[in-house]
Design brief:
- By secondary structure, the protein is mainly alpha-helical.
- The protein has seven helices and five strands.
- The chain has a three-stranded parallel sheet with strand order 1-2-5, with no helix packed on it.
- The termini are far apart.
């Protein structure tokens, strides 16, 4: 369910794409409630998931991390997974963890299926499709953190895109949590994006 490394003795749940095939948000909520309890029992308080990307590029090698290509289904699973991880109380209790909605935005549509490749999408498609799960994660599930995406949109890398990270995320949606980089995302600004 959650992308990352499994700890010895942890419950192994189906991959995101398999969970997506269930069309069952209640099941996803229960899976992530258990993930949160297991993580807390091992001293963790932050999970780098769920992955809310839309699976739109079949050549991409990470499609198993995503629930679906459908914005509505992924938005329902976003709320289910995040509330399972975080619960509804603030501050978080001893059975819940901070969730991370990733990868903001349009990470699941890389050109030629190359991980982190540019996302050839316009604002209308972003707002009516790719943003839908993230907006639900922020406005409905009150996610605690958001991870920036490796890709560029209109030539601007996600990790330094003020339109995405300030205007949309903070000003329009009122997100007041933590924005984090993807692994090596800041270093890739120089090594990959050449900025």
């Amino acid at each position: 369910g959650v992308h990352g490394f499994m700890q010895k003795g942890a419950t192994s749940f189906p991959s995101a794409v398999a969970l997506g095939a269930t069309w069952d948000p209640a099941l996803v909520h229960e899976v992530f409630r258990v993930v949160a309890r297991e993580a807390r029992s091992r001293g963790s308080n932050w999970i780098l998931g769920p992955n809310l990307d839309l699976s739109r590029e079949p050549r991409w090698g990470r499609t198993d991390e995503m629930y679906s290509e459908d914005p509505y289904l992924v938005s329902r699973f976003a709320v289910a997974a995040i509330t399972g991880l975080q619960g509804n109380a603030r501050p978080f209790d001893e059975f819940h963890v901070i969730a991370t909605a990733k990868h903001f935005a349009a990470h699941g549509q890389p050109e030629a299926g190359a991980n982190g490749g540019p996302a050839p999408v316009g604002e209308r498609t972003l707002r009516t499709e790719y943003f839908v799960p993230f907006e639900a994660a922020i406005k409905t599930a009150k996610v605690g953190s958001v991870m920036a995406a490796y890709n560029e949109i209109d030539g601007v890398p996600g990790h330094i895109n003020p339109w995405l990270l300030q205007q949309v995320l903070r000003q329009e949606w009122g997100f007041d949590g933590v924005v984090i980089s993807d692994g090596m995302g800041v270093e890739r600004l120089e090594s990959v994006h050449r900025v």
